[in-house]
Design goal:
6-stranded antiparallel β-barrel, single chain, 21 strands, alpha+beta, Yope Regulator, Chain: A, globular, Thrombin, subunit H, 3 domains, 363 residues
Length: 363
C-alpha cells in the first residue's frame, strides 16, 4: 500500500512555498488545495525521485479549497488511486495521511478518524489524530482499502488543538468532478461556487449567475526584481526557473549530478551552495591539502562533518547594473563547477557522492 501512495503523491513547489498533491489516473489530473497554489497559474510538481514537471493550474474553487493541475507528461505507468464512496468513513476508522510536511521528503502518518463530519467555517471536514503539518496540505487521506477519503488541509491553527488534523471530505471532490464536464487543460479557470460555471476570463462577477467571485482570484503573484535576477541566472544554466522554485526567493535544482541551492539570507546576502561530496573515510589528508592549496575564487569550499560544500556569497548591495552580468555568470559557473568537481573528487581522492547528488540511474 505504501508503495502505491509513494508513487502517486507529489510535492508542489512555487515561489511562495510548497505543499502536496496526488495524481488521479482516471482523470489524468493532480489534486491539491487552492490555498497551496493561490496566486500561481503555473507551478512545479516533483515525484519522490526528485524529478520535477511543470504543471498548469487549470481549475480553482476557492470556496471548496480545491485546485486541479494538468501536466503534459505520460504518467500511465503510475498505479491508479481511486476515490472512496461517499459517507464511507466512520469514527475510529484507520486512515493514513501522505505528503511532504515542511517540504521535507515524503512521509506517511497513521491515525484514526475522530469525526467524519466536523463542522467548521460552514463546511464539514474529516477530523483525525494523524500528524498533519504545513506542507501536508493538498495530499491525500487514504483508508485501509487504499482509497482516497479526503484531501489534507493544514490551514486550521489552534494553540489548544494538538493532535488534530483536518481534511476535505471525498464527497466534495466527487461533486466537483461531476460538475466539470470537459475541462480545458490549457488555461486557468475559476469555478463559480453558486452555479459551477467555469470562468477563464478575469471577471468580478460570474457571467452566468451574477455571483460575486472571490477578490483577486485571477491575479498572479509577481516576482521581486531580485527573484527575476536570480531566475535569469538559472535560465542561463539551462534550467527552467519554474521547476527550480522552492519558496520565497529560494531555489533548489540539480545541474547534472550536483544539487544547487540558491537563496537569500537575512535580506542581506545571496548564497549559492552545492553539497558536492563526502570526505573519504581514509586518506583524508590528500583532500584537505587540495582544498587548502587551491584557489577557488570567487568560490569557497567548506566542510561540515564529512560533507564538502562549494559556496558563493554576494552582498545584495553589491548587485548593480554594472555588476549583475558578472554575478550571474559567477552563479552559472558555480553550478557548472559543482557538477565538474563532484566527479573529480570521487575519481582523484576517493570521495563519495553526497546524498543530495543525483546520479544517472536516478534521472
Amino acid at each position: 500500500m505504501e508503495q502505491n501512495i509513494y508513487s502517486v503523491v507529489f510535492k508542489v513547489t512555487h515561489a511562495g512555498g510548497s505543499g502536496s498533491c496526488f495524481y488521479l489516473k482516471d482523470h489524468d489530473l493532480f489534486v491539491t488545495n487552492y490555498h497551496v497554489v493561490e496566486g500561481f497559474h503555473t507551478v512545479a510538481v516533483h515525484d519522490n525521485d526528485r524529478n520535477p514537471y511543470p504543471a498548469k493550474v487549470v481549475l480553482v474553487n476557492p470556496t471548496l479549497d480545491i485546485a486541479l493541475l494538468a501536466v503534459d507528461h505520460d504518467f500511465s505507468s503510475l498505479p491508479s488511486l481511486h476515490l472512496a464512496a461517499d459517507d464511507s468513513l466512520a469514527i475510529s476508522n484507520k486512515i493514513r495521511v501522505a505528503g511532504y510536511p515542511y517540504g521535507m521528503p515524503f512521509t506517511v502518518t497513521e491515525g484514526t478518524v475522530s469525526s467524519p463530519r466536523q463542522l467548521m467555517n460552514g463546511q464539514y471536514y474529516i477530523q483525525t489524530d494523524a500528524a498533519v503539518n504545513p506542507g501536508n496540505s493538498g495530499g491525500p487521506i487514504i483508508n485501509e482499502r487504499n482509497e482516497v477519503v479526503g484531501i489534507t488541509v493544514s490551514k486550521f491553527t489552534n494553540s489548544d488543538a494538538d493532535n488534530m488534523g483536518f481534511g476535505i471530505r471525498v464527497e466534495t471532490l466527487h461533486k466537483l468532478f461531476d460538475s466539470l464536464g470537459e475541462l480545458d487543460r490549457d488555461c486557468f479557470q475559476v469555478q463559480c461556487e453558486s452555479c459551477d460555471e467555469l470562468i477563464s476570463d478575469e471577471e468580478e462577477f460570474c457571467p452566468s449567475c451574477g455571483e460575486k467571485l472571490p477578490e483577486g482570484v485571477f491575479e498572479e503573484r509577481q516576482l521581486s526584481p531580485l527573484s527575476e535576477f536570480c531566475e535569469a541566472a538559472i535560465a542561463k544554466m539551462g534550467i527552467n526557473p519554474i521547476l527550480a522554485r522552492d519558496g520565497n526567493e529560494a531555489w533548489l535544482f540539480h545541474k547534472g549530478s550536483s544539487e544547487i541551492r540558491l537563496f537569500v539570507y537575512d535580506r542581506t546576502y545571496l548564497f549559492a551552495v552545492s553539497p558536492i561530496n563526502l570526505l573519504p573515510k581514509k586518506e583524508v589528508e590528500r583532500v584537505l591539502d587540495y582544498m587548502l592549496d587551491t584557489d577557488f575564487y570567487p568560490y569557497k569550499l567548506g566542510i561540515e562533518g564529512r560533507q564538502i560544500y562549494i559556496c558563493y556569497r554576494i552582498h545584495l548591495a553589491d548587485i548593480s547594473e554594472e555588476s549583475e552580468e558578472r554575478i550571474q555568470q559567477n552563479l552559472v559557473r558555480l553550478a557548472e563547477k559543482a557538477d565538474e568537481m563532484d566527479n573529480m573528487m570521487v575519481e582523484q581522492f576517493g570521495c563519495e557522492f553526497s546524498a543530495y547528488s543525483k546520479q544517472d540511474n536516478e534521472a
